[in-house]
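Notebook, bench 3.
Goal today: get a predicted structure for C1q domain-containing protein from Mytilus galloprovincialis so we can plan the truncation constructs. The sequence was checked against the plasmid map this morning, with no discrepancies at the termini. Length recorded as 203 residues. Pasting the sequence as submitted so the record is complete.
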Amino acid sequence: MMTIILKMKVIVFIFFLFSGCDVYTKSIQNVTEVSNEFLQNRLDKMEASLSVLESTVKNISADKKDDAVMFFAIIKSRAFTLDKESTVVFDTIVLNEGSHYNNYDGVFVAPRNGIYMFSWTVSSANANRVITELVVDDEVITSTGEKGADSGNHMSASMTAMCKIKKDGHAWIRTTGYSGPHYFNSQNDYPRTSFLGLLVRAE
């Protein structure tokens, strides 16, 4: 009798043991399935966020490229004279980010309000003079020039200036009102006449 009771207890114990394991296994499986689903959702959200971030970075890069405002133009190989208060046309573009400098009329048009920097060099030769000024919307900002003392000389003068310009404002280099003619000599093997400008800070 005791043996039968003992056997029954062992069978019940084994039954509950396996039943418990089955429940435990199912519980683990359920948790695992929930975890996989949760992780998959998180992964999908992260991929979507990454896609948005990549798109944003591309847009920012494109905007910055579009916002670049700078130019550098030269007079490549030419000797000529200009009367007083004549615009100097730097006809050969080396760099023109934003295409705001016109190499046909020598005028830069500001695309937005901001602080701009300009620098230019004028070159001459022999016993001649060349004096120029930076003009922004008919206001003279500053000037520079040179006069050779002897024939056979090649000389140049440079100036850098910073100023505020409103959107659609115009900036250019012209000869001053000092009596002309102003003689320019810009050659491959000698100092060249050049003009550069860039947006330092938009406002």
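Residues 2-67 form the longest helix (66 residues). The first strand starts at residue 70 and ends at 75.
Flagging this for group meeting.
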